[in-house]
Design goal:
- The complex is a heterodimer of chains A (219) and B (253).
- Chain A is built from six helices and no strands.
- Chain A is mainly α and 219 residues long.
- Chain B has a single domain, classed as P-loop containing nucleotide triphosphate hydrolases (Rossmann fold), CATH 3.40.50.
- Chain B has helices at 45-51, 82-88, 103-113, 119-132, 136-139, 152-165, 182-195, 208-214, 232-237, 242-248; strands at residues 5-16, 19-30, 34-38, 62-70, 73-74, 89-92, 170-174, 200-204, 217-222, 225-231.
- In chain B, the strands form two sheets. Chain B has a six-stranded mixed beta sheet with strand order 6-7-8-3-9-10, with helices on both faces. A four-stranded antiparallel beta sheet of chain B has the order 2-1-4-5, with helices on one face.
- Chain B is globular, with a radius of gyration of 18 Å.
- The termini of chain B are far apart.
- The chains are: A mainly alpha (219), B alpha/beta (253).
- Chain A binds chain B through residues 1, 3, 5, 71-78, 210-211, and chain B through 208-209, 212, 236-239, 244-245, 248-252.
Chain lengths: 219, 253
């Protein structure tokens, strides 16, 4: 039976997907800016960030309205609660894109150094986690969501590794400290993107199965 | 003993003539908890709740199989005194049904027919019951007025006070709020929540949000069967059965 609430749930889904797609785009642009030193991307990222923030507010409003007017239950309730959290995770991921952009401006017109390669790999992994977490939401794919959660450790390890390499660089060549710190922070931003993507995947599992796996409380 | 089955149905089938209305009902309602029965119209909720104090006995042609156990004793045993049973298992109906008497006598009546003669004691119990039903403050100066002068919600709380006066162990509510306004409904819901401290409460309701608000356990019934019975928070956040899910999310019903 088609329900009155279904139309509004569909609207909520469309807004979330729009927000997710803009967030993915901004992450990819920010990484492109970092790798290719393209200043013209910056304004585009800022502009999309504004739209993402606006969508975050809009999604909050739709969810509050749905909760107040429809008193949703079971899967509907879980879907709305998860949407609220996912939109907030996306908004924070989008903030990281802006952080990366701001940090990358430092590197424009400067020479790359070795850890850039590792950061590139880490960026690809974080991006794939974000992409898959969103896909798991669209397809209600619990296996894919679980796969995203597993990949988080890999990103954490990469971040630790980058930290160690940069620390060595700083000790060997004190003039590189400024650049190394910026790179460390970019590593940290990517690691946060992976964390938020993991949170999104955990929300997807809760929405589909009604089971919370947050903080490793699978049972 | 707390948290034990106060009243329990075991393999209960119920027939109106040749038509089966309840099929193999098994449910154990815990002491000092609120159990809600939900389900579409005609699913057997009211029929079931009425089996718990033998209210169906007056209907001609009915047949019941299985056991209803009140503290382990079958209430359908031939030696059970129905008057005693109904004193132990009280009932509040959909529409408030006060007696055409004064507010005071609505409550005192049950005490008198149960043999109480001490006027002072009767007054004390009337006051206590009305306080327990959160009605005392509103009507303490109007005790001699006819009960029909009260509002619908007040009449319903008077009926609750009337059933509390004879100290039941279990109180059955058959859609207690369907005939009253939202403010009065909120008061009754609050009252039901308080009552579970001393009584075991079973509520039939059409209003799912009401079941979610007031009950500890919820049974979802359909076509005379219990589809799912679980803790209320489980039923309304993550039901195990897709039929329950479809019903509570309004996909049918």
């Amino acid at each position: 039976m088609e329900r009155h609430i279904d139309e509004e749930l569909q609207e909520l889904k469309e807004k979330l997907l729009m927000m997710a797609s803009l967030t993915e785009k901004n992450i990819s642009l920010s990484i492109q800016c970092f790798k290719e030193h393209k200043e013209e991307i910056v304004q585009d990222v800022y502009k999309k960030e504004e739209t993402i923030n606006f969508l975050d507010i809009e999604i909050d409003q739709i969810c509050m309205k749905l909760l107040a007017l429809h008193q949703p239950m079971a899967v509907d309730l879980r879907y709305i609660a998860s949407s609220l959290k996912i939109s907030s995770e996306l908004e924070r991921i989008a903030d990281q894109a802006v952080n990366i952009i701001d940090r990358s401006l430092v590197f424009i017109n400067s020479h790359p150094q070795k850890p850039l390669i590792d950061i590139s790999r880490m960026a690809s992994l974080a991006q794939s986690m974000l992409k898959d977490s969103i896909e798991s939401f669209i397809k209600k794919d619990v296996d894919l969501a679980q796969n995203v959660c597993r990949r988080d450790d890999e990103v954490d390890e990469m971040n630790d590794q980058i930290f160690r390499v940069l620390l060595t660089c700083m000790m060997q060549e004190p003039t590189s400290i400024k650049r190394a710190v910026d790179l460390m922070l970019i590593g940290r931003h990517l690691e946060r993107i992976a964390d938020h993507s993991t949170n999104i995947s955990e929300e997807v599992i809760y929405y589909v199965k009604g089971k919370s796996i947050k903080h490793h409380c699978a049972d | 003993m707390k948290n034990q089955a106060k009243i329990e149905a075991r393999n209960v089938n119920f027939y109106y003539g040749s038509q089966i209305a309840l099929k193999n009902i098994n449910i154990a309602c815990e002491e000092n908890k609120v159990t809600a029965l939900i389900g579409p119209s005609g699913c057997g909720k009211s029929t079931f709740i009425r089996t718990l104090n033998r209210m169906n006995d007056v209907i001609p042609g009915i047949k019941i199989e299985g056991d209803i156990l009140l503290e382990g004793e079958n209430i359908y045993h031939p030696k059970v005194d129905i008057a005693v049973l109904r004193k132990r298992v009280g009932m509040v109906f959909q529409k408030p049904n006060p007696f055409p008497k004064s507010i005071f006598n609505n409550i005192a009546y049950g005490l008198r027919i149960n043999g109480m003669r001490d006027k002072r004691k009767i007054e004390m119990i009337v006051e206590k019951s009305l306080k327990e039903a959160t009605l005392w403050d509103e009507i303490k100066d109007r005790m001699d007025e006819n009960a029909f002068s009260l509002s619908g919600g007040q009449q319903q709380r008077l009926c609750i006070a009337r059933s509390l006066a004879i100290k039941p162990e279990v109180i059955l509510f058959d859609e207690p709020c369907s005939a009253i306004d939202p403010v009065a409904t909120a008061k009754i819901e609050e009252l039901i929540h308080q009552l579970k401290e001393h009584y075991t409460v079973i509520v039939v309701t059409h209003n799912m949000q009401q079941a979610a608000r007031i009950s500890d356990f919820t049974a979802f019934m359909m076509l005379g069967e219990i589809v799912e019975y679980d803790k209320t928070d489980k039923i309304f956040t993550n039901p195990s059965n897709t039929l329950t899910e479809d019903y509570i999310t309004g996909r049918f019903g």
